[in-house]
Amino acid sequence: MKICLFAFSLLFFLVSCNENGGSSASEAKAQSLQLKLKINDFSNDFVKLIGFYGDQNFAFDSVMADAKGNVLFKRDTPIFEGMYFIVFPDQSFAQMMLNKQQQFTLEFSKADIVNTMIVKGSTENELLYKNLKFESDISKKFEAIQKQLDAATKGTPEYEAAEKEQTKLVEERKAHIQWFAENHPNAFFTKFKIAGQNPDLRNPKRSDGTIDEELQVYHYRNDFWTGVDFADVRLLRTPVYFNKLKRYMKELTPQVADSLIKYATIVTEKSKADKEIFKFTANWIALNYRNTKIMGLEAVYVHMVDRYWTENQAWWSNKEEIDGLRREVDYMKPSLIGQPGQDIRAKNERDEYISLYDLKAPIIVLFIFSYECDNCKKETPKLVKVYHEWKNRGVDVFTLSIDADKEEWKQYLKKNNMTFHNVFDFDRESRYHRKYHIDVTPEIYVLNKDRKIIASNIDSDQLPKIFERELGL
């Protein structure tokens, strides 16, 4: 049973074909779209034009190739600049860059797109395929060197020789990218390519001469956005921006609330250089940590809404939606990890008022449930088992039912042998809903001896490890 206490959701920019097919003020001087394809070994079937927006992709159009492999994608107005894929029925594809120059021809063989590509009328795509051909060739060289390294023993002349060759290839690749920066610094492809590069790995040393890996990751994370032009919205319409954002938040940043909040703020502030990139960044981070399965990370969602969902920043939303989201996080704040667990006072099975704070055990488990909830029915026996294993070791349990029928609640307690401290508060007399955030039931909170919340959003199976850590066992 889901508890729908707060029926608010983030407002996301869902890209439709019509929206991405239209023109914008910044593209007013761009050409209308006239993309001609000459596919030498493909005919009488459909090809699709697929575009990107962040982590979404959309089908712009689908056109039938004639008997000679000619395809024409045409529109009276320009479409958004970005990267597009020309996708065939077997899911193979050709890549394409679009800037304001939207009238050009691509001729190629489907069997070997990169090496047969002939571009007419588009510098961006000439640069793209110059790079793709280079990468195709150098990747084969890297693979050959890797085989030599795998076959050789580290420290031998053969291994060292292969390493030198590998270093030469790395430098060759850097020089190749630098060529674009020097000769076509303002090209969209150049910005795309540079944005997609990983920073050089620094090797900070400890006093004993060993590499400080923690500091190495720190520098890598701080250098990660070097070369990314946050003011260029076109990067949002390629895979590169989303892939970097996801890696930055999910892989390079420790999945603990304090670190995530710090680095989420850094990248979101950078993203303000363009309103669309800011909108995507703020929404994506908030959404990913709203209903997280990792304990404590809902604090990231609270931070994002608290900091960025204001009337002067969340331009994509309206006052009613902003107010609703801010109310939701205000409800969530008191029950975040590290906050004081608030008292609950309500009537037990004997119609006597009892209080959460009456319990004296060093650790208290607060179990908020519904006797109608299927997940609660599965979780309750597990909690009872854990309680009996730990009740003489400093653990006590306080349960609260949010249901309407008191007699059914009593029957549920008896059936499940719930011999701990149980209260019933359908009328919300204790105002528990303002003290502890409940989005689904059952909801479990763990309070330590100082009555601070040390765990939430967990299952009963996870409780023993929390007890062991807190009690120093």
Question: What's the SSE blueprint?
Answer:
Layout: H1 17-21, E1 33-39, E2 46-53, E3 56-64, E4 70-75, E5 82-87, E6 93-98, E7 103-108, H2 113-116, E8 118-120, H3 123-151, H4 157-183, H5 188-195, H6 213-223, H7 239-250, H8 257-271, H9 275-288, H10 298-308, H11 319-332, E9 345-347, E10 353-355, E11 363-369, H12 374-390, E12 395-401, H13 406-415, E13 421-424, H14 432-435, E14 443-447, E15 453-456, H15 463-471
Parallel strand pairs: 1-7, 11-12, 12-13
Antiparallel strand pairs: 1-4, 2-3, 2-5, 5-6, 7-8, 9-10, 11-14, 14-15
Helix pairs in contact: 3-4, 8-9, 8-10, 9-10, 10-11
What does this structure look like?
With about 475 residues, this protein is an alpha+beta fold. The protein contains 15 helices and 15 strands. Strands 13-12-11-14-15 form a 5-stranded mixed β-sheet, with helices on one face. The protein has a 4-stranded mixed β-sheet with strand order 4-1-7-8. It has a 4-stranded antiparallel β-sheet with strand order 3-2-5-6.
